[in-house]
Amino acid sequence: MSETINKETHSFQTEVKQLLNLMIHSLYSNKEIFLRELISNAADAADKLRFEALSHDDYFGNDSDLKIRITTDKEAGTLTIADNGIGMTRDDVMNNLGTIARSGTSEFLKAMTKEQQADSNLIGQFGVGFYSAFIVADEVEVRSRHAGAKPEDAVSWVSRGEGEFSIESIEKSDRGTEIILHLKDDEKEFLEPWRLRSIIGKYSDHISLPVEMEKVDMAAPEGEDKEEDEVVVPEFEAVNKATALWTRAKSEINEEEYKEFYKHISHDYGEPLTWAHNKVEGKQEYTSLLYLPKKAPFDLWNRDKPRGVKLYVQRVFIMDDAEQFLPVYLRMVRGVLDSNDLPLNVSREILQDSAATTSLRNACVKRVLSMLEKLAKSQKEDYQEFWNEFGSVLKEGLAEDHSNREKVAGLMRFASTNQDSDEQSVSLKDYIERMKPEQDKIYYIVADNYATAKSSPHLEIYRKKGVEVLLMTDRVDEWAMGHLTEFDGKKLQAVTHGELDLGGLESEEDKKAVEKATEEKSDLIEKIKTQLADKVSEVKISARLDESPACVVASDGGMSIQMARMMKAAGQFVPESKPIFEINIEHQLVKQLESDMADEDFADWVSVLFDQAVLADSGHLDDPAAFTQRLNRLLTK
Length: 637
Ligand SMILES: Nc1ncnc2c1ncn2[C@@H]1O[C@H](COP(=O)(O)OP(=O)(O)OP(=O)(O)O)[C@@H](O)[C@H]1O
What we know:
Layout: H1 2-5, E1 8-11, H2 14-26, H3 33-53, E2 68-73, E3 78-83, H4 90-96, H5 105-111, H6 114-118, H7 120-124, H8 133-136, E4 137-145, E5 154-159, E6 164-170, E7 176-183, H9 193-204, E8 211-214, E9 236-238, H10 255-266, E10 272-280, E11 286-293, E12 309-313, E13 316-322, E14 334-339, H11 348-352, H12 355-378, H13 380-394, H14 396-400, H15 405-410, E15 415-416, H16 428-434, E16 441-446, H17 450-454, H18 460-464, E17 470-472, H19 477-481, E18 486-487, E19 490-494, H20 508-520, H21 522-531, E20 538-541, E21 550-553, H22 561-569, E22 580-583, H23 588-591, H24 599-618, H25 624-635
Parallel strand pairs: 2-8, 12-14, 16-17, 16-19, 20-22
Antiparallel strand pairs: 1-6, 2-3, 3-7, 4-5, 4-7, 5-6, 8-9, 10-11, 11-14, 12-13, 15-17, 18-19, 21-22
Helix pairs in contact: 3-9, 12-13, 24-25
Bound molecules: adenosine-5'-triphosphate (ATP).
C-alpha cells in the first residue's frame, strides 16, 4: 500500500498560487518575517501537543522537553526550523500545506487593485504563515511525524513554490516537524548565526518555549585539531526569553514585545492600536491580554467567521477562537485569556454553559469597553481611527448587549448637522452639551447615504429652529438605534417617525396654526387621501416642512420605507406599513392643488408630490417610469 501511494504530486489551490505570487513581491522588503511565522507555527504545534497530551498518555513519550531548534548547513545552503510539537499526519500535510482555509479569500484577491496588492498590510491579513518561507527559499521541504505515530509513518512535503508540491512517506526518528529551507542564492545571510539570533530576539522573545541555536564556543580557538574519529555533539542554548508574555509582569514588558506578541496571536501583519493586560486574583483568577487591531480584516462583516480569544487554562493552551468570552459585536478583539478556574479538560460544550465562562465573559467585555472609553477620552485621534474602521460593528452592541447598552452608546460617534462633513465624530455626550435649554430629546435621522440624510425635508423645521440632528447612514443604524431609546436620561427620536414632537421647542402658536389649517383644508386632505388610497395611511398638514412641498413619515413604531426595502432585499417578511403623507400648505405646489384643474391633472400632481417625497426619503421608487411619465405630462402642459 505504502509503495503505491508513496510519492504523489499535487497542485496548489488557485488561491495559494495567487497569494504566493503577491506575497513574495509585497513582503520582500521585510523578508525576515518568514522566521517569525515559522517559529510561530512551531510554537502553536507545541501548544497543541500539550493540550492533546492531556487525553493521550503516550503523546509525550520520552521527549517531554518541548523546544524549537534552528540549525544551518552552510555547505548545503539550508536553514532548518525543527520542533517536537504535535507534528502532522499525511492527511494534515495534504490539507494544511497547499490550501488556504479562509473563505472569501479568492474573491478578495481578485478584487484587489495593483496598489493594494503591493500593500504588505493587506497581504498580511491572510496570515502569510507557512508560505512566507518562499520569500527566501527556492525549495522548501517539510518532514513531519505526528505524536503517537510510528517512525515509519512520517511524511515529507517538498515544493519549489511554483504551483506544485509532492508528498512522500518517510521514516523520521523523532516526533514533530522540520522545515528545511533551501535558501535562494542571494538570501544566504540567513545562514549567519548572529543574523538569526537578532531576528529571533526581535520576534520571538515572548514565545513560551525555548528557541535554541547551537552554542558558540568562544573558548575553542578556530582550527584546533580534533581527534580523528571524535564525534562532536553540538550543544544548544535558548536564544529567547522563553516565557509566555502574559505571565510576565507588565512593568517588565516593553511596547515592542507587546506588539510582536499581537502579531503572533492575531496573524495580523500590522500593529495593534492598543491593548490591556490584566492579572486578576481572588475569587476569580485569570490573566487577560486583549488587543484592539488598527485595521479591519477583509471578512469582518462575516458574523460567523472564527473569532474570540486564545484560551489557556493554567498556561496550557486549550483552544483558538474561544468565542464564548466575547460577544459578536466585539469580534475585532484579539487576545489571550488564561484562566485558573476552568478545568483543563474543558471543551466548547462545557464552556457554553459554565458559570465561570459567564463571569469571565462579563469581565472581558468590561475590560474591552473600558479600554475603548479610555482611548476615546485620552487619545481622540486613535479612537476616531478605531471608529472609522469598526464603528458599525460596535453599533451592533446597542441591540445585542442590554446590560452594557449605556456604555456602548457612550462610545458611538455620528455625523451631524452641526458640522459640514460626513465624518462620524459626534458623541451623544457632545450632542447633549449643545442641546437647546428647552430641548428635551436627541434627534436623529437614518437614511441611505449622507447626501440624502443631510438634505432630507424632515430636517427643515430643525434647521429653522437651530436644533442639531444626528445623521446616520450605516446599514445597521436603523436596527441598532431601534434598541436605543434613551441615553443619559434623554429620549432619542428619529425625526422621520411619528408625530412631530418638538417638546419644549414647539410654540402654542405653531400648534394652533396646524390645527386651524387641518380644519380649513379638510376637503383637500380628503381628496388627496382618496387619490393615494392604497399608498398612505394618513394625509396631514405638516408642521415640519419649510422649503419642501411634502414628505413621508413612518408611523410611530412602524418601519421606515428604507428599512422595509432592506428587509425585503434580505428575503425577510415585511409587515405592511404605509407611511403618513405630510403636506406643506404654504408651498406653492400644494397651494395650486386647490386651483381649478382637471381630475387627471390633480391625480398627476398628487402622485408626483408623493413620489418626490418617497424619493427624498429613500432614494428609490417602486415604479420610476410612471413617475417620469406623469412629470413629463405636467411639464408639457
Ligand atoms: N510546525 C508545524 N507543526 C505542525 N503543524 C504545522 C506546523 N506548521 C504549520 N502547520 C500546520 O499547517 C497549517 C497552515 O499553516 P499556516 O502558517 O499556513 O497557517 P496558520 O498557522 O493556520 O495561520 P497563519 O497563516 O496565520 O500562520 C497550520 O494551521 C498547522 O495546522
